[in-house]
Design brief:
globular; single chain; 6-stranded parallel beta sheet; 32% helix
């Protein structure tokens, strides 16, 4: 089984995340997508970042009607600060019967060469890239790499930051969140201050 790991803070998870994940799993050779909720770095103060369990709960609620998209809290149990290469080693060791791939936005290719042990990642894992609109030119050194696959997914210009700002300003952002996530955010009074 081939699993795509889609990392994010998902603060909150929105329809853009779901559009990309669903497109990737339906239009590539990936069997499932795991939405890996990135834990709050204990060494950084970030008041807008909700508690790990609340963000996991939102990912769970957002994905429960998508059988090929699963929430994952795998990084919650790993030492902090965490690096993708360590997560991949841990998850591959734990699930020996699965092949794990990375999912990332095209803009992240610009910094891939700065990632800890990025050569090891590319040696052992495929990377599935979705397009992003960016003002910086996209790094071309990885364009022909055999382990990097560009998927012509829809370009989605929605951000969690935009949603948090909209909630704080009392704007209607309901269409940008799945129904259950919106209800949870509203019930818990998240992002209002």
């Amino acid at each position: 089984m081939k699993i795509g790991l889609y990392f994010g803070t998902f603060n909150p998870i929105h329809v853009g995340h779901l559009i990309i994940a669903n497109y990737m799993v339906e239009n590539s050779d990936l069997d499932e997508i795991w939405m890996v909720v990135t834990p709050h770095n204990p060494f950084k103060k970030k008041s807008t970042l909700l508690d790990n369990n609340h963000r996991f709960e939102m990912v769970y609620k957002a994905t429960e009607n998508y059988p090929k998209i699963k929430p994952s809290a795998i990084e919650f149990k790993l030492p902090q600060p965490n690096y993708t290469v360590h997560t991949l080693a841990h998850i591959s060791d734990y699930y020996k019967d699965k092949e794990f791939c990375l999912i990332m936005g095209e803009d992240n290719l610009n910094s891939l060469h700065k990632w800890k042990n990025y050569e090891t990642i590319l040696e052992h894992h495929h990377i599935y890239v979705y397009p992003r609109i960016t003002e910086e030119p996209i790094e071309t050194r990885f364009n022909t790499h055999r382990k990097i696959h560009k998927i012509a997914a829809p370009i989605v210009q929605i951000s969690s930051k935009m949603i948090r700002k909209g909630i704080k300003e009392q704007k209607n952002i309901q269409p940008l969140l799945s129904k259950k996530v919106w209800e949870y955010v509203d019930e818990m009074n998240f992002y209002k201050k």
